[in-house]
Amino acid sequence: MTVHKPRAVLRTDRAGGDWSAPSFGGAELHRTLMAALPELTARVTERLTGEVEIYRKLPAEELAGDVRKIMEWTICAFAAALRTGLLPEGAELDRIRSSAAKRAEEGVPVDAVVTAYHVGALACLDAVASAAGPGDLADALAVNRLLVGFLGRVTSAVTGGYTEEYRALLGEGTADRQSLLSALLEGSWDEESAVHAGIRPPACYLVLSLAIDAHPDERAPGVSTGVAARRKVRRLRTELERRSAEPVLSRISSSEGLALVPLAGQGAGRADWDRTADLVRALGSAAGASVTAGAAVCAPSGVPDAARLATELRDLAVASRRPPGLYRLPDLLLEHQLTRPGPALDHLVELLGPAHANPDLLPTLRVHLETDLNRRRTAARLDVHPNTVDYRLRRFTALTGLDIARNHDRMVARAALAALDTAPARFRG
């Protein structure tokens, strides 16, 4: 027979033991808190940044978003406890557990997270204490007793959610997946290791190599770069998992990443590539930063070569100043072939040597090629007079012998720029 424990109730001895919402100066405290909710939430957030150092370094986006929302929810929960005498329990505390888990993943110390709720509790007391009079002693004692119980529940939820997430980050499942990813990248995987990691080996992997720009918060003065970067990585991982029906093997830092996304078939069709392009755009939106991805498809045994190709494509897209997004080999076929190591690559780079010393010539050449040799559009993009464009191009021709008005020289110039982008260390101009 199951015995159900009654829900915890804190009561004073007033009114024959029945709970009566406490009041100061005749005003019920839960109504006072709710009436001042926006102002009080802002005050709590301000006190946090003043009294808890790590919160002072959090990104403004986080303070105005996650932190403000959980503080507002907690004030509402305490107001409800004041109204009913009932402490939150079970699923009612899931919001606090979830928030604490996010702070764990971002590396915010658990003691700072617990302290934040105590700072909020003091702010609530300060908001109502001035109205208390000599006749409110019994209500003041009831409020203090209720607050101690409330903070006990909150502290338990914070430490539970934080610890669970921290263990998950370091747990066996994560370690097994990382071991499997390493084995696949080394070409030494077997089905037994995949089963041990709780993953059914797919027929095919989509290999994504990611270049991730910095989030604005990572460059903001006074903001903890580490916290901002971990928030970005957490959002990326969450979006990656959300969009895949099967577990994704990934290794992601604040600036780059590698992900093996399972595919159902033996290869990727047009619909798969369309979904992948959408995925890369969604990753950028989730991260709040530009994401450029090189992609290749392979069987599990082909992961080492596919990962190398995907990374080459990613680096080539970034170096050649392509816009963020997805890049497959067909998208960069010519550039990829032109930048393979060898004497021809060295020679292409050396062709631009004489022009490299002039800081205006190569940027002008790039833009002019991108605008299909339209001098007015080139001038507009560079914010110079069209005659200046003509002068720079004549100077480029005089220094290199390449006249981009000629088809052959134009092809050579494009190839030389591609070679220079991907092999700057080879430049000997």
Automatic annotation (TrEMBL):
Residues 38-175 form the RsbT co-antagonist protein RsbRD N-terminal domain. Residues 361-419 form the PucR C-terminal helix-turn-helix domain. Pfam families: HTH_30 (PF13556), RsbRD_N (PF14361). InterPro entries: CdaR-like_regulators, PucR_C-HTH_dom, PucR_C-HTH_sf, RsbRD_N_dom. This is PucR family transcriptional regulator.
